[in-house]
Amino acid sequence: MSAVTDAVRVAPPGNPFVQSVRDSMVVAQRNLIRMSRIPEMIIYGLIQPIMFVVLFTYVFGGSMQIGGSTSAVDYKNFLMAGIFAQTVTFATASSGAGIADDMHKGLIDRFRSLPMARGAVLTGRTLADLVQTTVTLVVLAVVALLVGWRVGSQGDTDIAKVLAAFGLLLLLGYAFTWIGALIGMSVRTPEAATSSGLIWLFPVTFISNAFVDPGHMTPWLRHVAEWNPFSATAQACRVLFADPGQSTSHAWPMEHPVWASLIYSILIIAVFRTLAVRKYRSATA
């Protein structure tokens, strides 16, 4: 007796890049759906930057000297680029905590058991966080306009430059999100991810030109601030917004802030995405 067996057709492997993009979009959609079902995640993420805008504008606005001026209006326009940069940067903490939570619940292990691209889980998560950061940035820009911030305070209003500034902000936020992803993969609990994230976020954001002119800092601290990737993006935004900047600096990132911001962000993504994906392959809950 002979047995007839049906030939099993094996689908040819697809394009790895296309598969990676598809898998990343699926994971991003999953995270966005989760965010939409927990609106307080977005609401609480908006409260902190709005508080910074109000407090720094009305508490410190008349006491800061920017470019030789103590005008509250000049400081307000100077400040907003720093607040925008701080907002996209601090989103890193929640990103790391979310990944650590997925690790703690065993979700990452389940994803690893699926035939998915290796970096898709983390890429999808960071893309979803980028969408949330975009929403936060739009709302914050509206609040800034309400408290008196204006683009083009130095007489040069160009919508293309304004959009480019926000693009640099989102690129910086996306780059730093990969640092958060690496931290989230390296710790065991969401609480540890949040705490360890803040350890580096505070020095990066405050040893910078976000809130004060580094020209008033001690020499060694000024050099740190001027070569800080965060400072480069804040200064690039001031240039593109045509708002008051800091005192004259000969540091390359301050002389070419737009290029410096692009280079810094791309390098951070290249380095920390590689490290995070490598950690994803070996990490255990």
UniProtKB/TrEMBL annotation:
It comes from the Bacteria. It is found in: Cell membrane. The keyword Transport applies. One of its GO terms (molecular function) is ABC-type transporter activity. The chain crosses the membrane at residues 42-66, 78-100, 121-147, 159-185, 192-212, 258-276. InterPro entries: ABC2_TM, ABC2_TM_bact-type, ABC_2_transport, T7SS_ABC-Transporter. GO terms for biological process: response to antibiotic. The keyword Repeat does not apply. GO terms for cellular component: ATP-binding cassette (ABC) transporter complex. Belongs to the ABC-2 integral membrane protein family. This is Transport permease protein. The lineage of its organism: Bacteria, Bacillati, Actinomycetota, Actinomycetes, Kitasatosporales.
